[in-house]
Every structure is written in C-alpha cells, then in structure tokens.
C-alpha cells in the first residue's frame, strides 16, 4: 500500500483536456496526487467528460450567471477551496483571472502555457514563434500571478522549429511534451521538492535561477 500523503489537486480546464488526461494517467501510474475536482467555464468541455470517466468530481460553472469577472472568479475559487484542493492546476483554462482570486493561491496554482516564457504570453503562441523566425519553441509550467502568463517559471520543454512548420505542426509536436512537463512539475510540488518562497522558486532548498528543463521524462537544472 502507498502510505505517502497525496496532495489534493483541482484542475481548471476550458476545452479538450489532454493535459488533464496526462495528469490522470500520471496519477494512475503513481503521481502522489488526489484529483478532487475538475472545473470548467464551459459545460460542453471534453475535459469534464474525461474527469467523469475517471470518477473525478466535476463542476461546470457558467460565467454568464455572474455580474462581473471578479464575482465569477471568487465564486469559482471558493468552490475549488471547498474541494480541499491545495494545488490548483490550470490546464487550458482560457480565462483571465482577477487578482483578488489569484492572490490567495499564490504558490499553490500553476499553469501550462505553450511558449518558452517570457516569450509570447497570451494567445497564438505558435503563430508568433513562426512569425518571429524562432528556431526553437516550447512550453512552460509556471506559478500563476495576477499578470497573465507572467508568474515565476518552474520548468520548460523545448522543441526545434523545422523549415516549413505550420502553427498546427508546432501545436501537434509540442503537445506530447506538455503532457510530460506538467505531471513532472506537479510531481516536484507534490513531493515537497519545489516551492514558491518570498525570494522566488526554491528547488531542493536552493534558489532556482533558471527554469528546470525537461530531459526525457525528467526535469533537470539548466
Ligand atoms: C495547451 O496547449 C496548453 O498549453 C494551453 O492550452 C492547451 C490546452 O490543451 N494552455 P488541453 O485542453 O489540455 O488539451
């Protein structure tokens, strides 16, 4: 029997939910997390169906029922807290969050973003990498701050940009790396090896100067 304490986790996802599925697979393979809740702003999000299929509690909360973005975010995050989650994972959650909702979760909320942050915060990251003529692209997992895609970066995965690549090519080739990157970063948090402190990210008790880099299935110091 696994006697390790499981970290209670909630996931927010607006769409397809392939990163959620990667977390579910990792959990099934021994990642020490307890998936308490999957919540979405879209009732029809496939992510909710994946959660249901895995027996995870779900919540579909429609922003249309709220007067302001802030009201919605505060109610959503209250429900997330009620689930007992101690880590909140944004996995394709396509909303800008109010600072009053984000701040209590500082150091306890991570996001996966398809660019090598600080490059290309926001949308259309693959297109922007191609337009810039980048020869390298990638994905990042970062702690969430009130600034969109602006919090401290925990870990990154890199891919080459090949001649003739389209946006769709980059998205397709990067996704399997996201699926390894996110569970690997969550594992370090669940194992207590990686924390956000007042001084920045600490990894094994030492300040992390550069994002960890994905090497195969493992995150390594750059
Ligand atoms: C991923 O590319 C993620 O990096 C971005 O949104 C996409 C979500 O995909 N934030 P999925 O819903 O996890 O399949």
From TrEMBL:
> For binding (6R)-10-formyltetrahydrofolate, which residues are annotated in this chain's numbering?
69, 94-97, 111
Active-site residues (renumbered): 113 (proton donor)
Q: Which GO terms describe its biological process?
A: 'de novo' IMP biosynthetic process
Q: Locate the Formyl transferase N-terminal domain: which residues?
A: 9-186
Q: Which SUPFAM superfamilies match?
A: Formyltransferase (SSF53328)
Output one GO MF annotation: phosphoribosylglycinamide formyltransferase activity
Among CDD domains, the record links this protein to: FMT_core_GART
Whether Hydrolase counts among this entry's keywords is no
Which catalysed reactions does the entry list for this protein? N(1)-(5-phospho-beta-D-ribosyl)glycinamide + (6R)-10-formyltetrahydrofolate = N(2)-formyl-N(1)-(5-phospho-beta-D-ribosyl)glycinamide + (6S)-5,6,7,8-tetrahydrofolate + H(+)
Listed A to Z, the keywords are:
Purine biosynthesis, Transferase
Keyword check for Transferase, yes or no: yes
> Site annotated as Raises pKa of active site His: where?
149
Gene Ontology CC, one term: cytosol
Q: Where does N(1)-(5-phospho-beta-D-ribosyl)glycinamide bind?
A: 17-19
Q: In which pathway does it act?
A: Purine metabolism; IMP biosynthesis via de novo pathway; N(2)-formyl-N(1)-(5-phospho-D-ribosyl)glycinamide from N(1)-(5-phospho-D-ribosyl)glycinamide (10-formyl THF route): step 1/1
Q: What class of enzyme is it?
A: transferase
Question: What InterPro entries does this protein map onto?
Answer: Formyl_transf_N, Formyl_transf_N_sf, GART
Q: What is its EC number?
A: 2.1.2.2
Report the sequence similarity comment from the record. Answer: Belongs to the GART family.
Q: What does this protein do?
A: Catalyzes the transfer of a formyl group from 10-formyltetrahydrofolate to 5-phospho-ribosyl-glycinamide (GAR), producing 5-phospho-ribosyl-N-formylglycinamide (FGAR) and tetrahydrofolate.
Q: What is this protein called?
A: Phosphoribosylglycinamide formyltransferase
Organism listed in the record: Oleiagrimonas soli
């Amino acid at each position: 029997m696994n006697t390790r304490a499981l970290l209670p986790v909630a996931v927010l996802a607006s769409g397809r939910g392939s990163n959620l599925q990667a977390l579910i697979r990792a959990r099934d393979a021994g990642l020490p997390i307890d998936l308490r809740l999957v919540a979405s702003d879209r009732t029809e999000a496939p992510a909710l169906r994946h959660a249901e299929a895995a027996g995870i509690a779900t919540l579909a909360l429609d922003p249309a029922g709220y007067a302001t973005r802030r009201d919605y975010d505060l109610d959503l995050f209250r429900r997330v807290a009620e689930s007992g989650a101690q880590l909140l994972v944004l996995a394709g959650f396509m909303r800008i969050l109010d600072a009053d909702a984000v701040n209590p979760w500082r150091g306890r909320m991570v996001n996966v973003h398809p660019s090598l942050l600080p490059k290309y915060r926001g949308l259309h990251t693959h297109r922007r990498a191609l337009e810039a003529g980048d020869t390298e692209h990638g994905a990042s997992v970062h702690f969430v701050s009130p600034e969109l895609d602006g919090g401290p970066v925990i870990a990154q995965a890199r891919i080459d940009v090949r001649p003739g690549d389209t946006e769709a090519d980059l998205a397709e080739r990067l996704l399997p790396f996201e699926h390894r990157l996110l569970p690997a970063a969550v594992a370090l948090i669940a194992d207590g090896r990686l924390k956000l402190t007042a001084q920045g990210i600490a990894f094994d008790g030492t300040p992390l100067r550069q994002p960890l880099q994905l090497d195969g299935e493992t995150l390594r110091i750059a």
